[in-house]
């Protein structure tokens, strides 16, 4: 088994992780960044060679930061030793200080037809296009919620797709508050104006949400409604996303305190656990400015440069305030809880339909009685959906178990009685035994 | 022109630019269904970032690999899932 060691280990190579790594490296620490993706950049800088992405990558390189890619941290075998899964087998990494920069994933809400091939996450489709999916000439409506929808619509248009509509579920009224809020953030305002320019031929409809996708072999049509009027839109593919969910499983596995699905931190990004820091989207959705400044603070604090870190607190407070205004403006509407029907698949891994799961009393009950959330994604898609649909408390689940390496991982995790090398099923069961939150 | 790599998808040669994910290569061939669900519904990629597991298929004989997280390389053999898993 491969072993590595660094003074500061960073999990996640998105903007927050890169900023933390560069800052800690510049202060003379040995730094190792671990990331699940084949390349650095996280969600926003995936395949991006723009100025800012290049600058932070160059700062990391200049500071001697080391990277391991295609490597997912799954837990801790002993205090200060992480276990990570990778295609070539597991790896152990010892740290003195740790920065969690695990980012966020998209929130998906079920509606009839959302399991058809060709229905993609909005950010998901963008990621696929960045990795070579050619959408030229395709008609792709963008539906759901959040500031990312118009960004992604503009991106898809730039790649030659036709976007007939961007349907935002939030009402115009709730978004007006944001427009005034924007005035306090000039960089954002300019970005918003540019976007509007890029989108001038695409109707941006507020107060419309998806109610059904149809098609035989793949999606061919989507219906969006405002409660009174329903629009039917022919399409080749559909992009839908309802916001972001912080990835907190590593933090919770390490015993860091979590409140309402976000990692708790001090103003210097310290978690409740000594020597463990967190930054970026794992602390709640905040956008790239926020991720960067929090990454810088975490990296500096982890390197012991606390005064320098403290100087950045004002910038962070402003970025977080903006993020707060965003999440208020894009609050999910009640009606989204009523678009599912009994036949709608809620858990895509186990094909658990709404009719079976809706009557369960809690997430744990649903898991035990229906296998909802027990499949390979470990509830990472249906968990947040059920939290929204039923108001259940759903602990963030473990990352997917890679069957190929399951035994190796069990051995690597060691201590917890796994020396008997359980089979894949045994490991899965273990990973499902998270305390409910 | 970007350098290309050659792989085999469902028994046929495919030449794709280096840096293309397996998921993108398959979609570009017009194949939208990657696997069958436990109730045999046809499914394709959703999240594009390694989370949802809907893009799983067989790569070089290994089942359950995520097509969205794997990059195409020369000589790779990919099979989409026709049978239920
Ligand atoms: C699909 C998607 C698309 C987005 N597109 C945009 C956009 O176009 N514009 C925009 O402004 N914002 C976008 N965002 C929002 C974006 O997440 C933030 O602006 C910013 O990228 C957050 O940076 P971060 O460093 O906190 O997290 P991220 O960029 O999410 O980076 C976190 C990294 O940690 C890795 N990771 C997580 N868990 C583990 C683990 N256990 N082991 C190893 N690695 C792990 C992830 O693979 C990822 O690379 C998008 C978000 C998502 C989810
Ligand atoms: S598309 Fe979701 S894991 Fe690949």
Structural description of this entry:
The complex is a heterodimer of chains A (437) and B (85). Chain A has helices at 15-26, 51-62, 122-130, 148-158, 172-182, 186-198, 249-253, 287-302, 306-310, 313-329, 354-357, 363-370, 382-390, 406-413, 424-432, and strands at residues 2-11, 31-34, 66-68, 72-78, 81-85, 91-100, 104-106, 119-121, 142-144, 166-168, 204-206, 209-214, 221-225, 230-234, 238-241, 244-246, 258-259, 262-263, 276-278, 345-347, 352-353. Chain A is of the alpha/beta class and 437 residues long. In chain A, strands 1, 2, 3, 4, 5, 6 and 19 form a 7-stranded mixed sheet that branches. Chain A has a 5-stranded parallel sheet with strand order 8-15-9-10-11. In chain A, helix 5 (172-182) runs antiparallel to helix 10 and helix 8 (287-302) runs antiparallel to helix 10 (313-329). The two termini of chain A are 34 Å apart. With 85 residues, chain B is mainly beta. Helix content of chain B is 8%, strand content 33%. Chain B has a 5-stranded mixed sheet, with helices on one face. The termini of chain B are far apart. The interface between A and B is large, with 42 and 37 residues. The structure holds flavin-adenine dinucleotide and FE2/S2 (inorganic) cluster. The site of FE2/S2 (inorganic) cluster has 12 residues of chain B, from loops. FE2/S2 (inorganic) cluster is lined by residues 45-48, 50-55, 66, 68 of chain B.
């Amino acid at each position: 088994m491969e072993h590595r060691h660094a003074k500061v280990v960073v999990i996640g190579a998105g903007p927050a992780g890169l900023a933390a790594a560069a800052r800690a490296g510049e202060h003379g620490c040995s730094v190792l960044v671990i990331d699940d993706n084949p390349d650095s950049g996280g969600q926003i800088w995936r395949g991006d060679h723009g100025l800012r992405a290049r600058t932070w990558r160059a700062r990391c390189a200049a500071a001697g930061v080391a990277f391991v890619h295609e490597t997912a941290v799954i837990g801790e075998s002993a205090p200060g030793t992480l276990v990570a899964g990778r295609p070539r087998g597991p790896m152990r990494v010892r740290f003195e200080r740790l920065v969690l920069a695990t980012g966020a994933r998209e929130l998906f809400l079920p509606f009839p037809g959302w399991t058809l091939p060709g229905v993609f996450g909005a950010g998901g489709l963008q990621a696929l296009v960045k990795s070579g999916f050619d959408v030229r000439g395709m008609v792709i409506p963008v539906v759901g919620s959040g500031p990312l929808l118009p960004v992604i619509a503009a991106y898809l248009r730039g790649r030659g797709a036709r976007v007939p509509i961007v349907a935002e579920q939030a009402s115009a009224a709730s978004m007006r508050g944001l427009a005034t809020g924007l005035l306090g953030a000039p960089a954002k305002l300019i970005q918003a104006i540019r976007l509007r320019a890029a989108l001038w031929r695409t109707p941006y409809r507020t107060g419309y949400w998806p109610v059904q996708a149809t098609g035989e072999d793949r999606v061919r049509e989507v219906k969006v409604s405002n409660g009174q009027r329903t629009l039917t839109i022919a399409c080749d593919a559909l992009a839908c996303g309802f916001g972001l969910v912080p990835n907190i499983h590593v933090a919770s596995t390490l015993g860091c305190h979590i409140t309402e699905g976000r990692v708790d931190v001090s103003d210097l990004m310290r978690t409740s656990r000594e020597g463990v820091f967190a930054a970026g989207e794992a602390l709640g959705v905040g956008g790239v400015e926020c991720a960067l400044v929090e990454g810088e603070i975490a990296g500096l604090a982890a390197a012991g440069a606390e005064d320098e870190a403290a100087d950045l607190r004002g910038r962070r407070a402003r970025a977080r305030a903006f993020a707060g205004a965003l999440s208020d403006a894009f609050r999910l509407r009640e009606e989204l809880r009523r678009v599912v029907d009994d036949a709608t698949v809620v858990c895509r891994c186990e094909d658990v339909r709404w009719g079976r799961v809706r009557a369960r009393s809690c997430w744990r009950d649903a898991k035990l009685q229906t296998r909802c959330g027990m499949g390979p994604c470990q509830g990472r898609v249906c968990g947040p959906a059920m939290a929204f649909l039923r108001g259940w408390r759903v602990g963030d689940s473990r990352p997917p178990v890679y069957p190929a390496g399951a035994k190796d991982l069990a051995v690597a995790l060691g201590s917890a009685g796994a020396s008997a090398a359980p089979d894949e099923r045994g490991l899965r069961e273990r990973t499902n035994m998270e305390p409910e939150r | 022109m970007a350098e290309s790599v050659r792989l085999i998808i469902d028994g046929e040669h495919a030449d794709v630019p280096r840096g293309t994910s397996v998921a993108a290569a398959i979609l570009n061939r017009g194949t939208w269904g990657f696997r069958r669900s436990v109730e045999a519904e046809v499914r394709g990629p959703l999240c594009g970032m390694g989370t949802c597991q809907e893009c799983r298929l067989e790569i070089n004989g290994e089942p359950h690999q995520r097509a969205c997280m794997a990059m195409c390389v020369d000589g790779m053999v990919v099979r989409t899932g026709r049978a239920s898993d």
